[in-house]
Amino acid sequence: MGAKVTARSERVRNPPPPVPSWDFRAYAVSAHDDVFPRPASRRRTWMDATSHGFARRCLPLVVANHAGWVVRAPFGLRATWSGSDGPGGIDVRVLGDGHPASALVSDHFGYGILTFNIPFVFRTPAGVGLSVRGAPNFWIEGAHPLEGLVETDWATVTFTMNWKLLRPGRPVEFRQDDPICFLQPIDLGLIEAARPEVVDIESDAGVAAGYHAWARSRSAFLADGERRPGDWQRDYFIGGRLAGPDAPVHRTTVAVRPFDGAPAALVHIVDGQFTTADAVNGPALVKREPTSVTERGAEFVLTDADGAQHRLNATALFVLEACTGENSYEDIVEMVRVAFSLDDPPGAAVGGCLADLLRAGLVDRPG
């Protein structure tokens, strides 16, 4: 498997052409250390829980997950709508101890709309607005995020993130660190300049050849009686085309920078600064299934069968999921390089991460 990935991915390693940097400012109106916007996570708990992690193989989902910034709930809360159309119809209960940012939550719009006040004035370049919506591929049971486009190239006001509670009398719970607001800059002029057109696919020989080759390959893959549950087609993931050259540039991740001046997020990183011989030599490691995986901010909390908790960042969790007993150390190094668009194989970091997972009892040798 590793050789196949290497052969296909070496031809699409060139990153997209650089874009001139631009200033994206968040002027803080009130100071709350845990209400700052931060880079969004590429992982989702429900995606990790799918069989063989198949949802994580859908690169469009993964890229959408983290192509922006999120504001996370600084505390847990439970909201229940009475069904009234007027303001004050939502009973909001902060879970746990009181929090100084609790005043950011209100229901002054009525109609079962729960409002989070985002305490920043944002500024983007001329023509660039800000899409304000719920985090991609994330939901809250019983509530739907409302979306807005804000002209942040001139406005000097704050805005709100709103969630519509769907059923009167049904409590809706937001957990601490749940993403309540997703921020993504949008070039509105680029949208307006588009010239939409519907054409027959056969009018473009290259597009038609690529599609038909993919369709045949997909049909054969699905009809293969010897296909194993963990098998998957990687062509899109690695930027490969079955007809014609591979993609000249290809993204498997989006490098979203944190806001300068924001407090550092608490992230426990497995950094690989130790001996790796026990992990990288011998049979491939096998993941021990945790009893639960919970996303908490930029980290993931795994609870093992003994009740112990382990905190991993997204890269360490990716390495853990790759420990299937079939992937060698070299395979996993290549998977991480491709998934995170690295120029050089991250051998030392992956080896160290595997050793740390081995010590923690999250992976083991076969048998």
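(the above was protein one; protein two follows)
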Amino acid sequence: MDKVDKLLLKIGVPPHMKGYEYIKAALKVESARMMDVYEQVGRELYAAPVSVERAMRHAVEAAFDRMAPEVQKEIFGAVVDPKRGKATNKAFLMVLRLHLKEAKA
């Protein structure tokens, strides 16, 4: 199990969801535009960009429903939208990328 899998499981992303694999693939994409991310992941995993976006959103929502409050505070801090109680797909990926970079350093 690699660092990405460990992190996704720690924050509660269910591994049986399509969004889990899409998030893993999206973490490798170097674009800041989410549409580019959805398109590239879709090409790689043979899915429509809209399906990638929806599956990732569903996985993020599931993660925030399952995530322990102390883990949410440790990893996501103030990134979570207080009205929604979760991060956007873009914020979610950006925080995970930063967290993985810190783990390497």
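Reviewer note on protein two: Residues 49-66 form the longest helix (18 residues).
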